[in-house]
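Changelog note: in this version the structure field was regenerated for every chain. One regenerated record is shown below for reference.
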Amino acid sequence: MARNHITAKDIMERKVVTLAESASLTHAWMTLIEHRISGAPVVSESGELAGVVSQADLLRVAIEDEIEDLPARSYYLDAPYHEFEDGGHFSERFGNTTVEEIMTESVITASPNDNIASLAVAMRRNHVHRLVIVERKKVVGIISALDLLGVLEDH
């Protein structure tokens, strides 16, 4: 398949890890670590895309007042999280806050039929590392910048 004919549906991850709006931040943190991802779409009770939460969002809440507690290389899930890995240290700071309270509501999305050039342009122009692929307001896939690089590598 020629590169200019590749669409989002050809390369998107269909098994998308999502978070419920009502999920606790501790649950969100543990989900991201478990799946080794840096962010996830947030869905409403009806299953529609409501926002997105990233590891950076969660870290920002957890270390608002104590930036010096941030472990080295914390942006990467491979980093040595020490006491942060189990969410225990953050849990006390997360309190009863839900994903809905901190999620980014304006999500950059794409359609399954969008070609890879438009996906790359959307990522670059909006300074995002992932695009949520939606159809009729439902999350049907996700594409990361690494997925686009994989297309270049394969073709």
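Spot check on this record: The chain has one domain: 3-154. The chain has a mean pLDDT of 83.
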